[in-house]
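Intended use. Records such as the Methyltransferase entry shown here are meant for training and evaluating sequence-to-structure methods. They are not intended to support clinical decisions.
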Amino acid sequence: MIDIFGNAVLDYQKGNYTEDIITFSSLDEEDKIPLPYLFRDYKEMPELEQKALDLYKGSVLDIGCGAGSHSLYLQKKNLDVTALDHSKGAIETCTLRGINKVAHSDIYDFKGPRFDTLLLLMNGIGIVGRLNNMSRFLDHLKTLLNPGGQILLDSSDIIYMFDEDEDGGRWVPDTGSYYGEVEFSMKYKNQESEPFFWLYLDYKTLETASEANGFNCQFVRKGDHYDYLAKLWLK
């Protein structure tokens, strides 16, 4: 499998930045992921991410760490943080940036120690892909949490992307799937990824799935554009 994301962030880290990642989705026109944004510091992060990083406790696992900006910030505060990503290039980038603890692994294959905080930022819950995978995902996260541990995640309700009807409601096509399941592909330097699903969860759906799988769910803060920060912990 082509490591589009990893190749791009590694290029940026090594000073070979010439273009951004292009994304194509089942809901929208093509878009871009600006590589400099992935290397932002705390002051440049959205308030939701800043709030999540302020709520850390104990040891931290940064799931889907990407270029490692969240892990790097926490490490500089002398926290015990591990940066995890399935992208080899992303993990190499994290190492080059000076992150001490890294894990190159798919989340389901990661059987490491338990942590006090699991971070899933930049819509990190998206790695679940499809709504019917939530139970498996949350069950696995239980094996990575210390007693009293927490999960901090942000996501978006993408209902705004659908047409509004005369009554103010939204017209969502009846595809038989949850409307937050979006199919993506990425392109970088003439290489294109295989299509993959990314999950955007409205808060009510997250709360329902969490409760059904033995978690408490708390709405922490609303973002600027249909996004939110939530906290989960085991009942």
